[in-house]
Amino acid sequence: IKELYGWYNEAITTPDEGRSIELFQKILQEQADNVWSIGTIAEGPFPLVVRANMRNVPVGGYWSWDNVWISSCNPEQFFFDE
Predict the structure, then answer these.
(1) At what angle do helices 2-13 and 17-33 cross, to 10 degrees?
(2) In a 10 Å sphere around its CB, with 0-12 CB exposed, 13-18 middle and 19+ buried, how is residue 24 labelled?
(3) Phi/psi of residue 71, each to 5°?
(4) 3 state DSSP class of 25
(5) Secondary structure of the chain: what % helix, strand, coil (to 5)?
(6) pLDDT at position 69, please?
(7) How far apart are alpha carbons 56 and 23 in whole angstroms?
(8) How many of the other CB atoms lie within 10 Å of CB of 27?
(9) Which residues pair with 63 in a beta bridge?
């Protein structure tokens, strides 16, 4: 993990774009080769606090860490009622 952080810190500070790309590719390859975490649940129930004048928000929904949003609730259709 320390090596990954070292590569990351070098990648974001080096002025050499090629070196930065090389380091990020190394980081991604390490993540592909190693299992850093084991997920046990996806899209589990999660409480969602909604303002009283927000409309079209479903009563039940799921939070997804893939996009850090309520994944299956069509948030583009939420609106505020004045």
Answers:
(1) 160
(2) middle
(3) -75, -35
(4) helix
(5) 40, 10, 50
(6) 55
(7) 45
(8) 16
(9) 70
Helix (H) or strand (E) holding 17, with range, is helix 17-33
Q: Which residue do the tokens 């299992």 mark?
A: 35
Going by the DSSP 8-state scheme, the letter that residue 76 receives in this structure is G
pLDDT of residue 56: 85
The rounded average pLDDT for each run of 10 residues, N- to C-terminus, in the chain (82 residues) is 94 96 95 77 68 83 56 75 87
Q: Which residue has the tokens 């009622």?
A: 81
pLDDT given for residue 40 in this prediction: 66
Structure tokens at 11: 């990648």
> What residue has token string 């609106």?
79
